[in-house]
Write a structure and sequence with these properties.
The chain is an alpha/beta fold. It has one domain (2-141, 184-271): Rossmann fold (3-Layer(aba) Sandwich). The chain has eight helices and twelve strands. The chain has helices at residues 50-60, 85-100, 117-125, 143-153, 173-179, 184-188, 209-216, 238-257, and strands at residues 2-8, 14-20, 31-37, 64-68, 105-115, 133-137, 155-156, 163-166, 169-172, 195-200, 223-228, 268-271. The strands form two sheets. The chain has a nine-stranded mixed beta sheet, with helices on both faces. Helix 2 packs across helix 3 (117-125). The longest helix is centred in the last third of the chain and has 20 residues, at 238-257.
Length: 272
């Protein structure tokens, strides 16, 4: 079952999203859940509807999920020119809190999935929200590098001092200025639960070295790194997205739904 939801962030702005629920669940037990965080200038669908496809696969595997738009993105309130990274982090915390309170959701079995900058946000807050598992897709690790890339591509807007244009989005330089002050690698080092890292070998937005950075950062003994040969930043092929979704759903099912065979495995590096 899929249902539209809306909730307010810390600044009382309305965020909009979609909750997916599994078709069946055991009586008296809430379903485990996953919260998705989209990337920079993205939305709750993500490229080639990657989040939608994964959310539906999670539902079939017995897990609920929340996809939502950050403030200024998608159908949520605001304009992207008003967005900041700190605001998106606050939105992420609010979204997890909101999701935990929904009927039929087990608040003790919540995981996070983030892509690109959304992956960095997931890594930043995973320990704060007591997530039971973390999945990072092409996650940005060193945000100053991401800012440098955005500034190379962005174009100034003569009539709007302090703003630039990036992929037909108006971006405040304040958003970019905050990036270097936030360190997801430092924060994810505090996360002790299972972590799955998936990256494309030909990602020209976030370098594949970020996957190794994340793999080395946390002290969790249950972690896995998967590099998909030839894949780009958003895994934009049927074969690549299928691998990403299947691996992620299997991983989360092991830790949120079933008795996990992974508990006896530690520090795995896997290239497919």
């Amino acid at each position: 079952m899929e249902s539209f939801v809306q909730f307010r962030n810390a600044s009382k702005q309305v965020l909009r999203g979609m909750i997916h629920r599994p078709p069946k669940r055991a009586k008296g037990h809430g379903a485990p859940g996953v919260v998705f965080f989209h990337g920079f200038t993205g939305d709750r669908m993500e490229s080639h509807w990657l989040f939608v496809k994964c959310a539906r696969a999670l539902a079939e595997a017995g897990m609920a999920s929340l996809r939502f738009d950050f403030f200024g993105s998608g159908e949520s309130d605001g304009d992207f020119s008003e967005a900041t990274l700190r605001g998106e982090i606050a939105d992420a915390l609010t979204a997890v809190k909101f999701f935990r309170r929904q009927p039929g959701i087990d608040p003790q079995r919540i995981a996070l999935i983030g892509i690109s900058l959304g992956g960095a946000i997931a890594a930043l807050i995973a320990h704060r929200v007591r997530a039971q598992a973390l999945v990072l897709w092409a996650a940005a690790a060193r945000l100053d590098e991401l800012r440098a890339l955005a500034e190379q591509i962005a174009r100034p807007i003569p009539e709007r001092n302090g703003f630039v244009e990036y992929n037909a989005n108006v971006i405040s330089l304040q958003f970019l200025g905050h990036i270097e002050k936030i360190n997801p690698l430092r924060e994810v080092a505090r996360f002790r639960q299972p972590i799955l890292i998936i990256h494309g070998s030909r990602d020209d937005t976030v370098p594949p070295s970020a996957a190794e950075d994340y793999f080395q950062a946390p002290e969790s003994q249950i972690k896995e790194r998967i590099i998909i040969p030839g894949a780009d930043h958003t895994f934009a092929s049927l074969a690549w997205e299928s691998q990403v979704i299947e691996r992620s759903v299997d991983w989360l099912r092991a830790f949120l739904v079933e008795s996990s065979p992974f508990k006896r495995r530690s520090g795995r590096r896997l290239t497919v």
